């Protein structure tokens, strides 16, 4: 197989890993604020 | 009053044990809308490729909420995520971008953030909102962002947040002045004229 095909495969693999890493990092930073309702004496009540 | 913090700024804060080990980081902040208190946090892992964790941090297990870290006694205090928030609640209870209405029916803006008190209280003291024209007069191009105190008669869901109409008289432009406004709002509710 020609050497440049291997180069393309390696570049594609690196790009895929980078995209997965960025997606995971974006997911971790996408925190939000959630309001819940707790019954008195129920789960989460203090 | 302890230092005030925006709930969105808590995202990615490390969760650190008293022995100094960072075991996770904060993802979502969960609060009880009726009681006006944080009930816990969902978590992400600390590694480069770590995603959301199956464990969460109940507020009862928090030693202290600081500006740079959330302190816990040890990793054993983490609980399964449904203890803090069920999946359905997580989908329906997102308050960011919800409409803000007064109990008199006026729409005064949309929610940008939730203001919480640091330390050990976990109290929700107010909201940062993108103010509508009913609250702040001004150019439509430059949306005014203000802080309003949380009312005792608060109702909140993923669609709308209802605050007392008198809370809109205590808006502030920044967190330091908001702390004083919250105190004045409480005094006003206890009978002292604003």
**Total number of beta strands of chain B:** 14
* DSSP summary, beta strand count of chain A: 1
> How much helicity do the residues of chain B have?
10-25%
In terms of DSSP E residues, the strand content of chain A is 5-15%
| Helix-strand sequence of chain A | HE
Helix/strand/pairing class of chain B, anyone? mainly beta
Q: Counting H and I runs of at least 4 residues, what is the number of helices of chain B?
A: 3
What's the mean pLDDT score of chain A? 81
Average residue pLDDT of chain B: 86
List the total number of helices of chain A. 1
Gyration radius over CA of chain A: 23 Å
Largest Cβ-defined interface: A-B, 20 and 44 residues
Tell me the strand percentage band of chain B. 35-45%
Structure, described:
The complex is a heterodimer of chains A (46) and B (194). With 46 residues, chain A is mostly helical. Chain A has 1 helix and 1 strand. Chain A has one helix at residues 3-29; one strand at residues 33-36. The longest helix of chain A has 27 residues, at 3-29. In chain A, 15% of the residues are buried. With 194 residues, chain B is mainly β. Chain B is built from 3 helices and 14 strands. In chain B, strands 1, 9, 10, 11, 12, 13 and 14 form a 7-stranded mixed beta sheet that branches. The relative contact order of chain B is 0.16. The model of chain B has no long low-confidence stretch (mean pLDDT 86). The chains are: A mainly alpha (46), B mainly beta (194). The interface between A and B is medium-sized, with 20 and 44 residues.
């Amino acid at each position: 197989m020609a050497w440049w095909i291997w180069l393309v495969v390696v570049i594609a693999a690196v790009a895929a890993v980078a995209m997965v890493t960025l997606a995971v990092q974006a997911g971790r930073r996408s925190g939000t604020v959630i309001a819940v309702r707790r019954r008195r004496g129920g789960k989460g009540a203090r | 009053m302890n230092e005030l913090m925006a709930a969105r700024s808590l995202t990615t804060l490390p969760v650190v044990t008293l022995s100094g080990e960072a075991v996770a980081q904060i993802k979502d902040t969960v609060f009880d809308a009726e009681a006006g208190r944080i009930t816990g946090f969902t978590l992400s892992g600390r590694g480069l490729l770590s995603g959301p964790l199956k464990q969460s941090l109940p507020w009862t297990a928090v030693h202290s909420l600081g500006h740079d870290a959330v302190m816990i006694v040890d990793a054993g205090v983490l609980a399964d995520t449904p203890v803090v928030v069920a999946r359905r609640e997580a989908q329906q209870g997102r308050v960011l971008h919800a409409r803000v209405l007064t109990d008199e029916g006026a729409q005064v803006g949309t929610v940008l953030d939730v203001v919480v008190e640091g330390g050990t209280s976990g109290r929700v003291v107010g909201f940062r909102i993108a103010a509508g024209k009913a609250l702040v007069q001004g150019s439509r191009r430059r949306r005014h962002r203000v802080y309003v105190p949380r009312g005792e008669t608060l109702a909140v869901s993923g669609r709308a947040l209802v605050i007392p109409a008198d809370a809109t008289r205590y808006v502030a432009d920044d967190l330091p002045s908001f702390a004083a406004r919250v105190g004045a709002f409480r005094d006003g509710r206890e009978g002292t004229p604003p």
